[in-house]
Amino acid sequence: MRNNTLSECYKLVAVRTQAFGQNGRRSYSSPAQEPKPYKSMPGLSSLPIIGSMHHFLPIIGSVGSNLNTFEMMDTLHKRFGPIVKMEGVFARANMVFLFEPEHFDQVFRAQEANPLRPGFQSLEYFRETTQKGTIDGLTGLTTAQGEKWREFRTKVNPALLKLKLVKVYAPALDEVAKDAVNRLKRVKDDKAYLENNFYLELTRWSLESVALVALGSRIGCLDDNFTEEHPGRKLMQCAKDMLDTAVELELFSSVWKYIATPTFKKVMKSYQLQWDISATYIENARKRINERGYAIPEEEQSIVERLLNIDERVAVLMANEMLVAGIDTVSFSTTSLMYYLALNPDKQEKLREEIRSDNPHKRYLRACLKESLRLRAVVPSNLRRTDRDHIVGGYIIPKGVDVVSPNEYLSNLDKYYPRANEFIPERWLADKSDPLYYGNAPQMITLPFGFGIRSCIGRRIAELEIETFTKRLFDEFKVTWEGPPIKIQNKIMSAYSAPYNFRFENAK
Q: What is the superkingdom listed in this entry's lineage (predicted)?
């Protein structure tokens, strides 16, 4: 009945089908035929209860278990075409992968007024049960939806998005970057240590940086006595636990909603530990503010102080999220940038010349960061859960389906970026007449910080941290990579694994 009604509407009303040309403009046309039902959409076959999960099992799976996200997208695209269905696992929502930018643009923009982007269900459970009394119904940006999300985002936007308030951290973040580079000086010749512990060194820097911004003080992650018992080290382990368990708990299994599995118990302990450590840091920040005894200008306040002036619960929850979300995301993106510059010594030398110049506008540095994010994004895909039926590419996508845009995969196709697999920062500085000009690709292709009002609220802070560290690092060192390509892990967010074959020489 619903499909019949949709078909009639489809015939009577001109549905805007967005098609992108080389200049990225949209054109609109009416459909030539009535849409096909959702069940006829191509995709992986499904079994009762376990959905499409058997395709990802070792040996017997048609897709396989060892593919990273990029390889999986490539397999699905080549096998099934521009629209691919994958049935949900253990009552998870069904998923539809859209490989044409006009298709996911259509869905994302249609839902921009109230975008639904499911977060970590296990984290939502933890907050709604264990911390319900502490936060009094608030759920934070990671887990909130609808009006709750909009209300929370509206409160925190001024503290995190005002450019002048972000730039005030530049001198202090430069000191953190200097300390991190000095640590590298002391360990750079210990190849065995760096191959296994480089990412630890980088996450120490990223956590110290985000803590400075969120709390207004250093927490000692770069000190020599950074042992396993240090609260910062425990925070880093909690963030790792969340990412390590996310694929099982958030993507492939909802069994934990009925049975407390070992993985579920592990991540609940991590959530609690992370909450307790964050709460201690936040309380210490509050004490420093109270002991100061006088007001300071807004642009000199930490984020937690600005938010405490608005809503104490919001301040606690936002600082808590920042102390986790700002660790691996920034570390991964910085590692990617270092990796591509290490593989492209001519680009690295060009960057070094800019860093050492008197020009305050480091345009090439920003272009290098944009290019590395195009090639390797910490979140390789964007997602929206449909709040209504959509007709996309000739198919009906019903309400309640997770629509996925595989942005990193598409960003690496020559169809959109000439010489797409090459690291060419110049494409972000090129004239519009240049075939390399980034604007020739549809705007929806490369979205490393998300799309629309649900894009990453910490983008400006993250970019400032990365750019500040990069300037210090490449002014001091010539960075090379010796060995096979860096390994990437298949997690809910992108992650690298050892060995890290960076080599550091003093730059002339």
A: Eukaryota
Which is nearest to 242 in space by CA: 330, 335, 124, 139?
A: 124
Tell me the CA distances in angstroms from 77 to 96, 254, 327, 348, one per residue in order: 12, 27, 32, 34
Residue predicted with more confidence, 298 or 423: 423
Would you list the domain boundaries of the chain? Answer: 1-118+382-422, 130-379+448-506
Q: Specify the higher pLDDT residue, 11 or 119.
A: 119
Per-residue pLDDT at 300: 80
Whole-number pLDDT of residue 91: 55
DSSP annotation of 40: G
Question: What fold, for 1-118+382-422?
Answer: 3.30.43
**Cα 325 from Cα 347, distance rounded (Å):** 30
**What is the average pLDDT across 454-471?**
94
Phi, psi of 52 (to 5 degrees): -100, 10
Report residue 379 as tokens.
Answer: 């979140």
The predicted-structure confidence for 215-270, as pLDDT tens digits, reads as follows 888 999 999 889 999 999 999 999 888 888 887 787 666 678 788 889 899 999 99
Lowest mean pLDDT among 4-8, 259-263, 299-303, 445-449: 4-8
Helix (H, G, I), strand (E, B) or coil at 48: coil
456 is in an annotated binding site: yes
Report the CATH fold assignment for 130-379+448-506.
Cytochrome p450 (1.10.630)
Structure tokens at 208: 């110290």
Euclidean distance between CA atoms 463 and 456, whole angstroms: 11
Instruction: Return the closest-CA partner of residue 116 out of 493, 321, 400.
Output: 400
CA distances from 179 to 184, 191, 218, 420, 462 (A): 9, 20, 12, 36, 18
Q: Are 436 and 426 in contact (CB under 8 A)?
A: yes
Burial 289-315 (b: 16+ CB within 10 A, else e): beeeeeeeeeeebbbbbbbbeeeebbb
